[in-house]
Amino acid sequence: MGRTLQNTMINLGLQNACDEAVYQLGLDMEELEEIEEDAGLGNGGLGRLAACFLDSMATLGLAAYGYGIRYEYGIFNQKIRDGWQVEEADDWLRHGNPWEKARPEYMLPVHFYGRVEHSASGAKWIDTQVVLALPYDTPVPGYMNNTVNTMRLWSARAPNDFNLRDFNVGDYIQAVLDRNLAENISRVLYPNDNFFEGKELRLKQEYFVVAATLQDIIRRFKASKFGSTDSVRTVFDSFPDQVAIQLNDTHPAMAIPELMRIFVDIEKLPWDKAWDITKRTFAYTNHTVLPEALERWPVDLVEKLLPRHLQIIYEINQRHLDHIASLFPNDVDRLRRMSLIEEGGTKRINMAHLCIVGSHAVNGVAKIHSEIVKTQVFEDFAALEPEKFQNKTNGITPRRWLLLCNPGLAELIAEKIGEDYVRDLSQLTKLHEFVDDDLFIREVAKVKQENKVKFALYLEKEYKVKINPSSMFDVHVKRIHEYKRQLMNCLHIITMYNRIRRDPAKLFVPRTVIIGGKAAPGYHMAKMIIKLINAVAQVVNNDPMVGSKLKVIFLENYRVSLAEKVIPATDLSEQISTAGTEASGTGNMKFMLNGALTIGTMDGANVEMAEEAGEENLFIFGMRVEDVTELDRKGYNAQLYYDRLPELKQAVDQIKSGFFSPKDPSLFNDVVNMLFHHDRFKVFADYEAYVKCQEKVSELYLNSKAWTKMVIRNIAAAGKFSSDRTIKEYARDIWHVEPSDLKIPPPNEPRDGGQDKTPNGTAA
């Protein structure tokens, strides 16, 4: 979520008033804002997307709740020591959190372990351990519409009789100390991005958030006029018309068997009715196609922790496979491929398959990704129910990612096309009229230059390096992962360095290359990549032959509040994942909206950015998905590229020989060995096209006016990538609610009788 103060002032239309009031107290608002900690309660793009979606849902007047876990420790703070990443705990609540309100009156029990007892009256889950879920509510204000939604985060609490209700007369002190075991559930965020780690505590977290949330939703449904009761029992027929639940990846997949358990075991609905309601309630968004990221929980673990849920999953699977068998008799391989249970070795539950079978809609997050989902990853399911599969291209909130972080540009745009674009970003197309307006071109360039000077001062303060603000700011910020190919950027840096040294008199377009992002603590290769970048920076930044022509900076502890500083100052945005691996990306959109040009592959949302702006207004290079597939078919041989490309050979040899690690020449052997022998993401295959494309970038940068005109064309084409557009599509195609741009009256004005009713009562 990042910081809340400035975003709240902007959405409430109070920023100028607050700035002025604080100034009159002899304080500086910007200094105050820097004191607030980031709320870093998720990993990379997935968590930030949810935050943008909350802003858009409130702005569109949807009655929507964001549910999650109130981690005591969020994503770790990254320190760079001697070039290596070191993790520190993110004690973000140390000074309290003024934005949250604990709601003990809505505390709910969550059960674990135990056993299942079957009887004539149905199944009973008994002898469980109970953990309490305490909700904390954070307000989510819409933009200038007097609407405030709620983000409800659950914290784990031990019940007061924890470990004392047993025949545990003995050790009272130990029993109280053991309360920590229960409360560890919400202690810390697992810091993996695009990687599945099948730990028991993680499964506990996933079930914890799901069980508390579903009880909360059902309590709210029963309290509403829709939860009409037939004598005693609630009638749930209208449940899917009143409630829509969107599964953000498979992490909350246990919600499907949990809702079935509530309907069948507790509310005593017949299975078929319960299943129909469940399917119509859930929809699933897939966020990655990397096999190592797909959640596959061992059956043994689920059986121990959630025995009843395993039985329900088996029953769902049995009925699912019976249906497949009736359509495709004797096709045992199809049954194996489509089963929720993977046999062979340890039996595992494929959570993505559970989500597809248990949802009425499945979507990818960019056109190309949704195609891959349909035709490759889940092709058997798409063949069965093609109408279930959709695309919803990701977006970003223009409030945080333009108004808040780049007020200079936001104001310049407002002068030309009015202020309405903030709520309807498609209006940015009006900027096409000003592409040839010399004054506007100069003003856009001036705002960018001011942002660069400000960020250069920040870098000089934090990193003690002198930055040339007229150099091209070439920025690559995102989680560190092999598929995102920070290594390819690193090879380009080394290539530029070698070119400068080979011919120091030759014209070289000066660059400041900024790379930043966190590596998962257990991801050895990602940590080596960080060390390599820092080792290269050490050499480049201290070579007198290079001077101010080339500087390399690794940005420490990349997070939302740092993104808000670096993105407005960027000239060149690096989006260079191997085609077919980045589901969408959202950083790409933030850079586009903030006046950077993109160098990128035809991957994720880059494809649609090129479609919107015209491919000639992005620097597109490298293999397409088809080329990658073809290369896989032929077999990728890294050695071929190394032998054919002298500059690539020189760069790799320098890494291998210890040129960048003279005290430990073999330091980067693992990296080099990977690049030659098991590089799944084919860095060498795109190196030549990438370097050539970078030459075109430098050439255009020399012509400031032509560069800025291309920038304006990009900003004018960025409207599609508002999360408002994304959420409108979810609302209409999946949740079946109508967004409203009605501004409800402020609380100090009296309302008409009927004005508190929403046009459609569904809550998402």
* Class per helix and strand makeup: alpha/beta
Low-pLDDT sequence parts:
753-762
Q: What's the number of structural domains?
A: 2
Spatially, the strands of the biggest sheet line up as: 21-20-19-22-23-24
CATH T-level fold name of the largest domain: Rossmann fold
**CATH top level assignment of the largest domain:** Alpha Beta
The share of residues in helices is 40-55%
What fraction of residues sit in β-strands?
5-15%
> Quick one: how many beta strands?
24
* CATH structural architecture of the largest domain: 3-Layer(aba) Sandwich
CATH superfamily of the largest domain: Glycogen Phosphorylase B
Could you give a short account of the major beta sheet? 6 strands, parallel
* Rounded mean pLDDT score: 96
* CA(first)-CA(last) distance: 19 Å
The radius of gyration computed from the alpha-carbon positions, rounded to a whole number of angstroms, is 27 Å
Q: How would you describe the oligomerization state of the chains in this entry? A: single chain
**Tally of DSSP helical segments:** 31
Shape by Cα distribution? globular
Pfam family, one: Phosphorylase
Family: Belongs to the glycogen phosphorylase family.
Enzyme class: transferase
GO molecular function: glycogen phosphorylase activity; pyridoxal phosphate binding
